[in-house]
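User: What would this chain look like folded?
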Amino acid sequence: DVQLVESGGGSVQAGGSLRLSCAASIYIYRSYFMGWFRQVPGKERQGVTCIWPGGRKAYYVGDVKDRFTISIDTATKTAYLQMNSLKPEDTAMYYCAIPRSDCTNNPNLYSDWGQGTQVTVS
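Assistant: Here's the prediction, encoded as structure tokens.
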């Protein structure tokens, strides 16, 4: 199993920015897909974005496309989610995860998860 640890969450005003980090226990850049999900209490976990190995492609779900950017640091074992122009509806627990196969919005197809980091936008 791959261990993932998220950090960087916090409270921010609408219009602000945060950068979430996901530290992996192994070198992920060339070999692994990486996704970010978010979840609010009482609702299902939803896909936000996913990046292909080597960073050659990424997709974004919904209106985060023009505001969020996923990346992986080639020198470290860390993935990032840069979030700009944050809105109150972005408030959620954010998780990074590695899928069993390739990028998908289905959380059931991910095998490794971090513990999550809370983002609150007011």
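The chain has a mean pLDDT of 94. If you want, I can go into more detail on any region.
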